[in-house]
Amino acid sequence: MLMRTDPFRELDRLTQQVLGSASTPGTWSRPNPMPLDAYRAGDEYVVAFDLPGVAPDAIELDIERNVLTVKAERRPPQLADDVEMQVAERPLGVFSRQLFLGETLDTDRIDAGYDAGVLTLRIPIAEKAKPRRIAITDADSHKQINA
């Protein structure tokens, strides 16, 4: 089972709304800097992170004790010397997000793909967590009753 993300993120979001803090360079002003969708598809969970404008080599995935950390960096565009920026609203910098994964997921077999600014993770459900049928034997005849 996939579990809720960092609980302090909501507190930060509420604080920003109440205090009306302005965004500073290198920070995100949106509530979720890395919005995601997560769903179960058969025997795996799929998690899709929106990372527009982030190069694939600027994304890091780490897992430690069932905590998956996604870290990404949106770098400033390489502009020619004679170009003068007029508007710069897209946030730049390093940002991260953590997912706390349940014990029923196989974290050794996570598959990650990146296409069109979307990082998609496929996390299989562990074999030990899948439902299985248990055979019953007849104590007198030592034959299996069902399989």
Automatic annotation (TrEMBL):
This is Hsp20/alpha crystallin family protein. It comes from the Bacteria. Residues 27-140 form the SHSP domain. InterPro entries: A-crystallin/Hsp20_dom (IPR002068), HSP20-like_chaperone (IPR008978), Small_HSP (IPR031107). SUPFAM superfamilies: HSP20-like chaperones (SSF49764). Belongs to the small heat shock protein (HSP20) family.
